[in-house]
Amino acid sequence: MTDELEQQVSEMLRNRVADLPASYEVAPSTVTRIRRRRATKLGALTTAVVVVIAGSAAAVAQSRGDRVRQVSTSTGPATPTTTTNATVARGTVPTKACPITYGVTPDTPLPPPATGPREVSVPGADALASYAATTDERFVSLGPPGWSCAATVGADGNSSVVLYPSGRNAPPPFADTARLSILNDWLWHGFVGVGEACKVFTDAELVSQAQGVLVCAPPVGRTVTRIDAHTATFVDADGARGAAWMLLPTAEGGDGFISVMTCRPTAGLSAGNCDAIVADWIARVGARVSPAATSTTTLPAGAVPGEGCGGAPTASGGVPPRVPAAGDPALSPGLASFLADVDGDPRFMVLGPRGWTCALNLKPTAIVVSSVPGTSWSDAPIVINEQWSWSAACSVFDDPAVVQHAPHNGPCPKAGRRVTRTAADVATFVDADGARGAAWTLLPSAATGGHGFIDVLTCRPIGGLSVAQCDTIVADYAARAHTGVAPGSG
Fold first, then answer.
1. pTM for the predicted model, two decimal places
2. What percent of the chain has pLDDT over 70?
3. How many domains, the chain?
4. pLDDT tens-place string over residues 105-136
């Protein structure tokens, strides 16, 4: 039955095909209608494909955004801590707090940063995260999401912030190996601060402060673009790039500031990322008039800051600023006053370059000021020797009693020394090798119990300590010596 039915159907179909005409003319209206329907179906298909692709891209972007926009909070003093996920609004980035290590425990630590999302407007910035050590904008930087950060504040007031991939050891704080780093210092920090500034800026004040010891010019291969009086950006031949912000010292005091941000492209940190990071940093830091006072305080007009001396009662600080008694006031912004006696004995107070260290040596009694901690009194560029001997007095003074009692192993004063007597008990001198200084003396007498006193300041010009600075240091010391009270008699 089934085979018979199939045969009948086949026969019917063959007969219908045979009856069809060899050609068939289709009406134009039919062609138009068919094309319109085909176009509609293709358009719908294309729209569906686009919607699927767009939906996939949006899902990928959302997934990436969820990974990028994480708010991290550091709760420990030495290492980054856990991360808390939270989406942030468009145009903002999450903030991660950076732990701070202090060279000397401060009485008041730097204030903690806000860890909420912060706004960004630089192109490409919203793909990054923000890292902050404190509220000062100089300590805040964008960086790749998921990285770690650490900040260091040195005992002498300079500081750094470094960013690095998580899971790796933090790079040395002040080395040039960090992929993303910020260095902050006060400008007149010996040759340290001015040395950093001279790598970007060539202002006349920097050239003068460099004193010919440092070359005040960008490194070979560095292209610098000056933005304004305080800011500049740079690109190095190896692809590293960054920005610097500088504030020169003022007549009212202060040491000035230098901050340098450097970004070195690497895996996970593209040149485009670096451009966005630098642009964001310079836009925030460059907009400031002056940074928060993290290493200096406002000084009275013409004053220099006071510093204590290691090994002395003043080592803990608290030395007040003072106005130098003599010398070139124009040099004051680069100087500090070092004191080793809590009672303010002028014999134990001396000017020296800011950023240098001071130490009290007891055998023999000497005040040592140097750019290198631990320098011996015999090698120190600035030293005050406090002792009594006829030979020490003979090295500067030629009073008859000194000549009479001094050992006859040389002239009084010593050979090659040009002495200027400024008072009965005070003299200044310049040696043939360029060293210069001042001395106070009180000869033995019944009033002193048969004891005499001699204090000799010597200043030896070297790198970071100019002849002009030595002249001012000596002038200040000699002026305070001539007070009507001989050293040791008060």
1. 0.47
2. 71
3. 2
4. 887 888 999 999 999 988 899 999 999 999 99
Rounded to whole angstroms, what are the CA distances from 152 to 230, 272, 285, 373?
24, 27, 19, 20
The last residue of a domain, from among 285, 318, 346: 285
CA distances from 420 to 177, 394, 458, 479 (A): 52, 14, 15, 13
Residues with Cβ within 8 Å of residue 391, at least 6 apart in sequence: 406, 407, 409
Q: Which residues contact 19 (CB under 8 A, 6 or more apart)?
A: none
Q: Residue 392's closest CA among 371, 368, 379, 409?
A: 409
Q: Answer yes or no: is 262 within a domain.
A: yes
Q: Which residues fall within 8 angstroms of residue 4, CB to CB, at 6 or more apart?
A: none
Q: What's at 93, amino acid-wise?
A: V
Q: Collect all residues with Cβ–Cβ distance below 8 Å to 56 and sequence separation of at least 6.
A: none
Q: Which residue has the higher pLDDT, 178 or 430?
A: 430
Domain boundary (285, 318, 334) is at 285
Expressed in percent and rounded to 5, the helix, strand and coil fractions of the chain are 25, 25, 45
Domain assignment present for 13: no
Residues of the domain holding 113: 66-285
Does one domain contain both 324 and 471?
Answer: yes
Residue 201 lies inside a defined structural domain of this protein: yes
Query: Could you tell me the pLDDT band of residue 483, with boundaries at 50, 70 and 90?
Result: low
* Domain co-membership, 317 together with 458: yes
pLDDT value at residue 16: 44
Amino acid at 170: A
User: Does 354 map to a domain?
Assistant: yes
Residues 270 and 329 in one domain: no
